[in-house]
Amino acid sequence: MPRPGLASARTDHVGSFLRPETLKAAFLAHAKGRKSKEELRADQDAAIRALVAEQTAHGIAAVTDGEYRRLNWQVSFSEVTGWDLWPSTWASFVKAPDNVMPGETPGQKGGDAVVSFRTPATAKLALAENFPLGELKFLKSVAKGPAKITLMGPDRVCQMCDIPASRSVYADADAFLADVVAVQRRMIDELIDAGCDYIQLDEPSYTGYVDPPTLARMSAEGQDPLAALRRAIDADNAAIAGVAGRATTGLHICRGNRASMWHREGGYDPIAEAVFGGLKFDRLLLEYDTSRAGGFEPLRYVPRGSHGPIVVLGLVTTKHGAVETVDELRRRIDDAARFLPLDQLAISPQCGFASGIGGNMLTMDEQWRKIDALVETARRVWG
Q1: Residue 73 half-sphere exposure, CB side, CA atoms within 13 Å?
Q2: Confidence category of residue 109, pLDDT binned at 50, 70, 90
Q3: Interacting residues of 222 by C-beta distance below 8 A, sequence separation 6+
Q4: pLDDT at position 256
Q5: What angle do CA 130, 160, 48 make, to 5 degrees?
Q6: What residues pair up with 131 in beta bridges, in sequence order?
Q7: DSSP string, 245-293
Q8: DSSP string of 92-144?
Q9: Residue 79 C-alpha from the chain's centroid
């Protein structure tokens, strides 16, 4: 049975795009008290209008607002009572507008940001304001086609919480994660009710379960990585329960992307059977731009046929400006098709172009040339 609409789209992107320098300057001026919230919003509106028009011109199936209202991709979970990470996020932005922490070098392996920014829960979680809903409402007002919204996945939220320091509120990670899912279920329902066509959860946390240093840290903290992985899969599925038929769902997995850095390494092999076989999403967006992601062999664990997901191969790198050729992308798709039928494959960048406001190490022109390369590749492969 053919897949409907966006679920079968052969091109995709992860959500964020490079911010114009004028927009970066507007954020900084607001952070320093030189521009009002209303003035910043007007600048964001103008930049989003231009970005949506650009995406449409380049043939993107579902447009986003580029995450142009966010300091970083994690802001989707910002307006939640009981977990106040965000004042420190603005303070960090003023100190380092390029999103690079002391001791890090753009384009190289970075530090463990999850550990660096852990924050305890101070009260039971409750949705104060659905931040992505505000993003969607403006996006729908300017988009002529389908709209996509990205959300930080529940396991990533859980990894960023200082659970031991939250004992007065939550007995353990399971209790905290259950409330994260409840908050995100409400967010997702409100998004769909407002007309969101495509919901994507971002879960870079999954690569922690293949990265040796992260596994060692988890074990040292007394965590059972296998149990945590199963809990993460259950949480992601619970977040989209009841969404089937109402919107397209996607889940993105990468190894870190801030300022062209990466934070984790390792192929999908150890988690492929559990993750690819267990997640109930329409689309799985998988990083595959370097050898850090391993080979395509783990795709054999993806369920086949119309009930299995489309695997969106993240073959186009956002970490540097060298533009991939259509021929090399087609060769890699052919390699992947040895393990999963071509009809279940699609193509995208491996991650966003700007997971943080500072963006990655490439130009706007290179960004759009990469988009053009993947669109043309999809045309030649799938027609």
Answers
A1: 31
A2: confident
A3: none
A4: 83
A5: 40
A6: none
A7: TTSEEEEEE-S--GGG-B-----STTTHHHHHHH---SEEEEE-SSGGG
A8: HHHH-TT---TT--TTSB---HHHHT-B---S--EES--HHHHHHHHHHHH-S
A9: 18
**251 in Cβ contact with 203 (< 8 Å):** yes
The DSSP letter of residue 67 is T
CA distance linking residue 141 with residue 145, whole number of Å: 10
Mean pLDDT of 7-21: 96
Q: Are 11 and 56 in contact (CB under 8 A)?
A: no
Residue 82 backbone class (left: φ over 0; alpha: ψ -120 to 50; beta: rest): left
Percent of the residues in the chain that have a pLDDT greater than 70, as a whole number: 96
| Phi/psi at 37 (5° precision) | -60, -40
The number of helix segments (H) and strand segments (E) in the chain equals 12, 8
* Measured distance CA(44)–CA(359) in Å, rounded: 16
pLDDT of residue 95: 79
Relative to beta strand 283-287, strand 80-81 is unpaired
Question: In degrees to the nearest 10, what's the CA dihedral of 158, 163, 169, 175?
Answer: 50
CB proximity list for 138: less than 8 A, separation 6 or greater: 45, 48, 65
The predicted-structure confidence for 151-166, as pLDDT tens digits, reads as follows 999 999 999 999 999 9
| Phi, then psi, of 250 in degrees rounded to 5 | -140, 155
**CA 363 – CA 187 distance, rounded (Å):** 34
Concatenating the DSSP letter of every residue in 190-228 gives HHHHTT--EEEEE-GGGGGGT-HHHHHHHHHTT--HHHH
